[in-house]
Design goal:
Two copies of one chain form a homodimer. By secondary structure, chain A is of the alpha/beta class. Chain A is built from 14 helices and ten strands. Chain A is about 45% helix and about 15% strand. In chain A, strand 7, helix 9 and strand 8 form a beta-alpha-beta unit. Chain A starts with a helix and ends with a helix. Chains A and B meet through helix 6, helix 12 and helix 14 of A and helix 6, helix 12 and helix 14 of B. Chains A, B: This is Threonine dehydratase.
């Protein structure tokens, strides 16, 4: 993996990806005690950064492989990103999803034209299911994070951050990224290492699912004890990837761990001050920026709001909690 | 008023205004039966397009007038736009607000450094109060819409729409604009008449407060029977302005009238499909696009989501209504 792969993905995405804005509010600056800039990837097509990786992977496939179709397993956002990219590339698409994923994500994926296969995430292994279906039907498996073309696609978000931070006159800052398997985190870290070396990526995770923070600390891949059971379902993975972890090790600073309640409170602040909708997992970085200010240094912090696909009941809970 | 005044305002705003994105979703296209592009002015600084007019007016004042200070009367969004612009220009700022404005808007205006004076909008005349305070303290009155520099500022939104529609390959479409006194509507109409003559502005208003639609129909300024009593408070005015009406007469097609319930449903769709927060008055144009498709023609429609400052209780009501 290198930054040239990200630049190549950026060319393939150009004209299709939404160049998402960097938002801010003096009210959020007051809470954090420094400038807070929010990269609003919840405004990306399908409501999360996963569109970037999905499009990058689909557009990089040889035509005959695209024609045979693709398969992906995902808690929802990767599914939607791959589904819409497959549809735009006229590729058949099968999505393997956990049966406890938010209903809205399952329905959206079907509505985007994909065939959805559900599995039990506590008792079944999605990798195994994905590999079997791929073999049976001749589909190309598009992994959610440990896949070079996916990492390259997510990295395009980092190229944008580098330009937008420069325009905002921010050259030294932590870049807080909501982190699951590390596809977005490692992609952004690679892009910034090349284009904005003063911007340092910090992975942000919910407590009890802080495999990346622990892995960065110990210097080897650590796993979580459980595969589900967090409101932050969008960024829950068992462990960082074999490809993503070495990149994070080389380019990221230590991780920040937040609580679910902090994520819900960050969602309410994003609603009120930025007028954007973010999901619990997509709020981990903003929660770190707002409620863990002592863990960062400098005059500014950049938080990536990675997604905005959240069931209404959870969003209402977040708003009511902070009234 | 001419487009050169809008281009001049755009130069003064450059580097300060947020160039808001044009959002879309295949799910919204399905509802409307045509492409729907949403200009997300709720993502503007202070959460509405009013920042543009406020900044335009403040930046156009001679330095000695700026130093003496400004005054504005507003249901909330104009107040915040003027307050933040005044603060950035080091100008003292008094805001006259109706006592029934959403609490969040009153508090935000105070937090932005302005002095807030409340009045009863059914029994007091805000123009009179504003004029008196301006005379007593030597302040410059910045009217919410019937003011050339304000119209020029709002018109910068139209310059952006012209460019963004062209990039999206939309050259013939209705541009639906949530309309109160007509500052934004006339500004966008002037800008598009020059830069994108195939885009036709249609004012959108809530029922019972459709003064602009009726005025365009009768050919003379018509008034509403009441000054308050709608969830769409942000776009409630008694009548179109003496400056804005002739511009709308010359450049706008007929108005579209929507119900409050349609605005709430449009808010829920914007939450779910675009991940943006819009207020009831800021949802009138999207409501017209989604629920009055027969009143427009063509393959695409552009709806301006004018603002996103909404009390949590109202937003929750909108989400629960459409569950």
């Amino acid at each position: 993996m290198d930054i040239e792969m990200i630049r190549a993905a950026d060319k393939r995405l150009n004209g299709y990806v939404r160049r998402t804005p960097l938002l801010s509010s003096p009210f959020l600056d007051d809470i954090a005690g420094r400038r807070v800039l929010v990269k609003a990837e919840c405004l990306q097509h399908t409501g999360s950064f996963k569109f970037r990786g999905g499009w990058s992977a689909l557009s990089a496939l040889p035509p005959e492989k695209r024609k045979a179709g693709v398969i992906a397993y995902s808690s929802g956002n990767h599914a939607q990103g791959v589904a819409i990219a497959a549809d735009a590339h006229d590729a058949p698409c099968v999505i393997v999803m956990p049966s406890d994923a938010p209903a809205v994500k399952i329905q959206n994926t079907r509505d985007l034209g994909a065939e959805v296969v559900l599995y039990d995430r506590d008792n079944e292994d999605r990798d195994e299911i994905g590999a079997r279906l791929a073999a049976e039907r001749g589909l190309t498996l598009i992994k959610p994070f440990d896949e070079p073309m996916v990492i390259a696609g997510q990295g395009t978000c980092g190229l944008e951050i580098a330009k937008q931070a420069d325009a905002a006159r921010v050259t030294q800052a932590d870049v807080l990224v909501c982190c699951g398997g590390g596809g977005l985190t490692s992609g952004i870290a690679l892009a910034l290492a090349g284009d904005a070396p003063g911007l340092k990526v910090r992975p942000c995770e919910p407590e009890r699912f802080d495999d990346v923070a622990r892995s960065l600390k110990s210097g080897r891949i650590e796993s979580n004890n459980r595969a589900s059971g967090s409101l932050c379902d969008a960024i829950i993975t068992m462990r960082p990837g074999d490809l993503t972890f070495p990149i994070m090790q080389q380019h990221c600073a230590s991780g920040i761990v937040v609580t679910e309640e902090e994520c819900l409170r960050a969602m309410a602040h994003a609603y009120e001050r930025l007028r954007i909708v973010i999901e619990p997992g997509g709020a981990a970085a903003l929660a770190a920026a707002l409620f863990h200010p002592a863990e960062s240094e400098g005059d500014a912090v950049i938080a990536v709001a990675t997604g905005g696909n959240v069931d209404k009941a959870v969003f209402i809970k977040a708003l009511e909690m902070s009234q």
